[in-house]
Amino acid sequence: MTMSNYQELLKQREELEAKIREARETELKDAIAQVRALVAQFDLTADDVFSSGKRSSKSSGAKVAPKYRNPATGETWTGRGKAPKWIADKDRDQFLIA
Questions:
Q1: Strand boundaries in 15-62, DSSP class E
Q2: Any idea what the Cα angle at residue 78 is, between residues 74 and 80, rounded to 5°?
Q3: What spans are recorded as compositionally biased (Low complexity) (predicted)?
Q4: Which of 15, 59, 69, 79 has its CA 20 to 30 A from that of 88?
């Protein structure tokens, strides 16, 4: 490949990148117009369109009643998460709260 071919290819690339930018801008304007029309037609809010998909449950963050009690200290544990040392590797039935 000679230098002139290389220069020609670089020029073609620049021209092609310019055409790509122009096409994107035109299509982007059309897409924004369509989105705005749909938002207006259905009276949508940003939350409607861009919701995170996460739904909070009513029990989210709610306290859970303790299920186990350490008879020596009165310390309790719900049975969720990592077990405390006083109940780890032991029969948990003996620590159940009635």
A1: none
A2: 140
A3: 51-61
A4: 59
Q: Can you give the C-alpha Rg of the chain in angstroms?
A: 32
End-to-end CA separation in angstroms for the chain: 87
pTM (global) more than 0.85: no
33 burial type by CB count under 10 A (0-12 exposed, 13-18 middle, 19+ buried): exposed
The answer on pLDDT for 71 being more than 60 is: yes
| Element at 69 (helix H, strand E) | strand 68-69
Distance, in Å, from the CA atom of 84 to the CA atom of 95, rounded to the nearest integer, reads 12
